[in-house]
Design a protein that fits this description.
Blueprint (H helix, E strand, L loop, with lengths): L11 H7 L6 E4 L3 E5 L9 E5 L11 H22 L3 E5 L15 E6 L15 H15 L1
Antiparallel strand pairs: 1-2, 2-3, 3-5, 4-5
Helix pairs in contact: 2-3
The chain binds guanosine-5'-monophosphate (5GP).
The site of guanosine-5'-monophosphate has 13 residues, from β2.
């Protein structure tokens, strides 16, 4: 899979945006959807997925990039308020060699705690009850 190329709308995030695949949603608006990552690297790991069909940041329009970053910031603040982490990592991968596994643009928001080591990228599936409990706290903080 090359860094540039045709967008393939059969990817899982396209299905989640279309409502054709399930997800624990944090918000869903005109420009982006935010969901809990089901293979979290840390408790509360969540994703902002712009709705524009772009493979990665290099393909995303400037307008959609601007809309996305404001949502990334809003969600990071809600994660801070809702989960009270010691730190928050924001990442975004472009191309398989960079670590990208789903080829629809998305941003990771990964809360970090001093005592909790970072899990493996794409590691084990989370307990759904725990994910829902974390999502409730984040949604409450989003208002
Ligand atoms: P990437 O490696 O492309 O930057 O990140 C893709 C992310 O999507 C990974 O963190 C992975 O755990 C997450 N992911 C993959 N499939 C699903 C899914 O079906 N649902 C959710 N909520 N997250 C997924």
């Amino acid at each position: 899979m090359s860094l540039t190329g045709q967008y393939d709308d059969t990817n899982i995030f396209a299905k989640i945006i279309a409502g054709d695949a399930p997800a624990i949603k944090l918000f869903d608006d005109e420009h982006a959807v935010a969901i809990m990552d089901i293979f979290p690297q840390s408790p509360g790991h969540c994703l902002v997925i712009p709705k524009e069909p772009a493979r990665n940041l290099l393909d995303l329009s400037d307008g959609a990039a601007a809309q996305a970053i404001s949502r990334v910031k809003a969600l990071a603040k809600a994660v801070e308020t809702g989960l009270d982490p010691d730190g928050i990592v924001v990442t975004q991968f472009n191309g398989a060699p960079a670590g990208q596994t789903v080829f629809h643009i998305h941003f990771h928001i990964i809360p970090r705690w001093d005592a909790i080591p970072l899990g493996r990228h794409g590691g084990g599936q989370a307990d759904m009850e725990e994910l829902n409990a974390q999502a409730e706290k984040i949604r409450a903080a989003l208002g």
